[in-house]
Amino acid sequence: MAMAKACSTVLPCLLLLAIVSLSLAAADGGGNNSTDPAGQVRLSCGSSASATDSDGRAWDGDSASMFLPSTNAGVAARASYQDPSLPSTVPYMTARVFASSHTYTFLVRPGRVFLRLYFYPADYGNRSASGALFGVTAGGVTLLQDFNASQTALALDAAYLVREFSLNVNSSGRLEVTFAPSPGASSHYAFVNGIEIVPTPDVFTKPVPTFANGGRPDPMPVRADTAFQTMYRLNVGGEAVSPADDSGRFYRTWDTDIPYIFGAAGGVSFEKDSDVTIRYPPSVPPHIAPEGVYASARSMGPTAQINLNYNLTWILPVDAGFYYLLRFHFCEIQDPITRVNQRSFFIYINNQTAQEQMDVIAWSGGIGVPVYTDYLVVTTGSGQMDMWVALHPDLSSRPEYYDAILNGLEVFKLQTYGSNNLAGANPPIPQKQFYQGESKRKSAVAAAVGGTVAGGLLAVLIGCLCACAICRRGRKATSVVVCEPEAIPDKQAHGPPSPTKSSALFKSGQT
Length: 511
Hints:
By secondary structure, the chain is an alpha+beta fold. The chain folds into two domains: 36-200, Jelly Rolls (Sandwich); 205-422, Jelly Rolls, CATH 2.60.120. It contains seven helices and 26 strands. The strands form five sheets. Strands 1, 2, 3, 7, 10, 13, 14, 15, 16, 20, 23 and 26 form a twelve-stranded mixed β-sheet that branches. Strand 8 and strand 9 form a beta hairpin. It starts with a helix and ends in a 5-residue tail after the last helix. It comes from Triticum aestivum (Wheat). Residues 1-25 form the signal peptide. Its main location: membrane.
């Protein structure tokens, strides 16, 4: 009797434990298909084996995955060529190729995730790289449309592409990612080399960003279900930060800002003083950005009069017609900037004043303490456009130094709510431009070839000039013509047209 009573108590407990275990397995994406205890998923598409990349991340082959049903599963293929610039063979050297639409279904924890899609445009079997034209949707949002990875890679001068999106997974915990060839030609196909899913906290909607509308504070809340695409993530003034060195186990890549600096006036880059420690405050958890971002910076330079005559500017090509969230990371890391009102500056975005009197010490509370601030901007039109980000000293509070500083910059594109779209056009392939040295070599060759002909004509030319001089020797000049060069309009020497509220400072004459 006692034993029967004990069994009646134990069996329900065991059943409940089994249900919980199955639920946790499903939340992790299906047992062995989740390569990270935090619920992260990595699929090396077209591969049948597990492998590790150069950053130490483990990838599961999708051939034996629960995410790849037996029907309409596409074809596993291997790239015909390994570009030397590939950071790793995993996941780039294998691909899953689709002649028709295919959907991967992932079971993940509800909330924010980074979805990263890895593309290596190469020939796969009898399919050429240029024939890959397709779209990608996920979570009901169009991420890519008529995407040509080969053209995009050529335009960016890159061998491979990583497209990163932030999506909000609803309470069902299902994230469906669909690849579909574009209509119009039977040769079009879709492909993907790797799919990575990284759960994250909500790092976008709070604090509420400010609309960059000419310096008038205007908070612009972002809907919790908004999808984002990462356009740029820059470690300003520092070296690139690899995914393995990112904070929060998010495996983000932080690129150097050097390729995007406008003109020759790039300011100066520097690292933190040896006695300065990066101290994250409660308002800036470490997963916002790794220490390497806050431990390096770029400023305008030590000469006040020079700083007053230019803007420290970055040019970032983006897709027109979308809203963008720009996140600026700041941290004072060198003496003597330790007090309020030693360095104050403007932040301009697309010729609009986003922030006046940006004083990092006043915002953060001290040296070595990170702070970040978000701004929203809207763009119009279609195709690609250049986004201008500029800094300039703000003298309104009479700061001790006429300078500006930036440690990191992120640019995120927001989905359009009406069409649930994030897709932009493929970037145009720039016309081939010769390096200066190559142009000089071409000029030298042309001069050598032309020199032979010119030498033969020189004697004839001299003879003609002599004859003309003899004929004109006794003649009296009747007029004198003075040739003046055409008037050349003034050009700005330091970046885009001077933003509102800064033109007066350029001519202030203050020292």
